[in-house]
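Quiz preparation item.
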């Protein structure tokens, strides 16, 4: 926003140097799609996960059989069509990726949903768009999917990312589940 813009104006590169700004938009979604083995989710992440979900929700004629060149101009108009709907879908997708249920989605974002049941309906819709993500999330919690360098596996309650960093999780079916699901994409 405006404060960030003013702050960036305070930064000046030394003579002979340049400041470079990088946008890691959708990086976590791309990694999540890769971990889940979901090429479609990775493609949607590059084009705009929330925009694609919104287009599907509004029954705009989009499908994965379309080329990126066909999809991108349609998806680029989604956020401006209904910013409130866009925000609600964004909250659901991010929250659902890390095991937030309808109750948590509603309680943490009451300005986005009229009720917990509305959050549940949005969540069901969004999860059905990319079912492989749900399978992967549930696999992490049930300890079917534990990444370790060289492939899937793991040791006990330890998750190891492709760079060898690891973390212990002791209550995957309970309080540690969301943190465990978030650990791999966030640490990568």
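Solution:
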């Amino acid at each position: 926003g405006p404060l960030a813009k003013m702050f960036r104006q305070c930064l000046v590169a030394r003579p002979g140097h340049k400041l470079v700004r990088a946008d890691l938009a959708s990086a976590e979604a791309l990694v999540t799609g890769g971990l889940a083995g979901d090429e479609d989710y990775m493609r949607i992440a590059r084009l705009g996960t929330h925009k694609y979900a919104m287009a599907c929700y509004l029954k705009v004629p989009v499908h994965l059989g379309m080329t990126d060149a066909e999809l991108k101009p349609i998806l680029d108009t989604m956020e401006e069509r209904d910013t409130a709907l866009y925000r609600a879908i964004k909250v659901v997708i991010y929250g659902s990726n890390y095991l937030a249920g309808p109750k948590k989605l509603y309680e943490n974002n009451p300005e986005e949903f009229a009720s917990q049941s509305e959050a549940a309906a949005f969540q069901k819709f969004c999860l059905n768009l990319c079912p492989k993500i749900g399978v992967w999330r549930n696999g992490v919690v049930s300890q079917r999917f534990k990444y370790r360098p060289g492939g899937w596996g793991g040791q006990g309650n330890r998750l190891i990312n492709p760079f060898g960093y690891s973390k212990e999780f002791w209550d995957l079916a309970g309080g540690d589940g969301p943190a465990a699901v978030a650990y791999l994409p966030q640490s990568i």
